[in-house]
Specification:
This protein is α/β, with parallel strands linked by helices. 46% of the residues lie in helices and 13% in strands. Helix 1 crosses helix 7, helix 4 packs parallel to helix 5 and helix 8 crosses helix 9.
Length: 269
């Protein structure tokens, strides 16, 4: 029996990619799920694709991470669905494919609003609930880009680096309040999702095509399996990626000068 059976797990970005794969994995584990993204019809599709026995314990709650002022009400609605929330999986976000010199400040702000401010707004809205219950688990899908910086992803990497800093600090704060409130950071590498298709170019339009690296990346199902294991183990942080991305993260950590020379020559677009 999974430790996640009957746990109430709230997933943002659940309408596609890693979030969708997590939904199927957690439904098999017997969790009670709250699925969120902007696209309600896609959330209903994901719910309908779950095993029949799990569907009575799955609810849909549409929200927009770009509208931080609405997320307190979304959090209150999520708590009311099953009476409490055990785990929040911060998975929603958008990508970037443009050079810094070609990216408008408006696009920079838009990506930060969704990937960083929306995520922490939802998290902060849920903190009092976790403190009241003296338990809870924040799981945030960061990226290898939250560990290293690569060309064409300046503000995306900035948002993910900001998440790393915020949640590492939050982990220490929550431990002082209640040791049963956990923070897990997930840093995936290239995964075969549509994040590169919907990634924003410098003018704010979508790239509209999948990067070759993502096309040949890990499957969302594989990544979801690793994430679920990390949740069950209450891991502090994990890297999930191919050997190139994971090796790059460790080179950056231990040999930053060497990494700087490698990345400026790398073909990463």
């Amino acid at each position: 029996m999974s430790t996640l059976q009957n746990k109430v797990i709230w997933i943002t970005g659940a309408s596609s990619g890693i979030g969708e794969a997590l939904t199927y994995e957690l439904a098999q584990k017997g969790a009670k799920l709250i699925l969120s993204s902007r696209r309600k019809e896609e959330l209903e599709r994901v719910k309908g694709n779950c095993i029949a026995s799990a569907q009575p314990n799955i609810r849909v709650l549409a929200l927009d991470l770009a509208e931080a002022s609405t997320l307190q009400l979304s959090t209150e609605a999520a708590i009311q669905i099953f009476g409490h929330v055990d785990v929040l999986i911060n998975n929603g976000g958008i990508g970037q494919r443009s050079l810094a010199k070609e990216t408008s400040l408006e696009v920079d702000r838009r990506i930060m609003e969704v990937d960083f401010f929306g995520t922490i707004a939802l998290t902060k809205a849920l903190i009092p609930h976790f403190l009241q219950r003296k338990q809870g688990h924040f799981v945030t899908i960061s990226s290898i880009s939250g560990i290293i910086g690569t060309p064409y992803r300046t503000v995306y990497a900035a948002a993910k680096h900001a998440l790393q800093g915020f949640f590492n600090s939050l982990r220490a704060e929550m431990w002082k309040e209640s040791p049963e409130i956990y923070v897990t950071m997930i840093c995936p590498g290239w995964t075969n999702t549509n994040i590169s298709v919907t990634a924003l170019k410098g003018d704010g339009s979508s790239q509209g095509k999948k990067d070759e690296t993502h096309e040949h990346g890990l499957t969302p199902d594989f990544v979801a399996g690793k994430i679920v294991t990390a949740i069950e183990n209450r891991s502090r942080e994990i890297y999930v990626g191919g050997w190139k991305e994971v090796t790059a993260a460790y080179i950056h950590r231990f040999l930053p000068g060497l990494f700087a020379k490698i990345i400026r020559k790398a073909k990463v677009k």
